[in-house]
Write a structure and sequence with these properties.
- The protein is α+β, with helices and mostly antiparallel strands.
- It has one domain: 2-Layer Sandwich (Alpha-Beta Plaits).
- The chain contains three helices and four strands.
- Strands 2-3-1-4 form a four-stranded antiparallel β-sheet.
Length: 111
């Protein structure tokens, strides 16, 4: 399991941004190996963390190479005041079982 966390400072979102963002979410969800996504805003509202979960590295890389994703990356300055990406390999995940999450509980999955 891999996580690609896209952390950014929002700028001016326009209709093009909203449409492209929706298309990218659909593309990600349609790729084999996509596990889910979630987004968080910092307490001060200045940063957003959009995390995408992937069952394997090949799926993550397929999304990274997708032409629409590359198009969005070329235009990022139109919509973001800065960004940082963190790609992580998940060693384990666990909880009390009450929260649904894209990363399965490794204790319950036998891992």
């Amino acid at each position: 399991m891999y996580i690609a966390a896209f952390i950014y400072r929002p700028g001016q979102a326009d209709d093009t941004f909203r449409q492209l963002s929706a298309v990218l979410d659909e593309i990600a969800a349609d790729l084999p190996g996509f596990a889910g996504a979630e987004s968080w805003r910092s307490a001060d509202g200045m940063l957003v963390n959009a995390s995408y979960y992937w069952h394997d590295r090949a799926a993550l890389e397929a999304f990274a190479r997708h032409p629409r994703h590359l198009e969005a990356k070329r235009q990022y300055r139109r919509w973001y005041e800065g960004y940082h990406v963190v790609v992580s390999h998940v060693e384990r995940a666990y909880g009390d079982g009450t929260l649904a999450h894209p990363v399965p509980d490794s204790r319950r999955a036998g891992g």
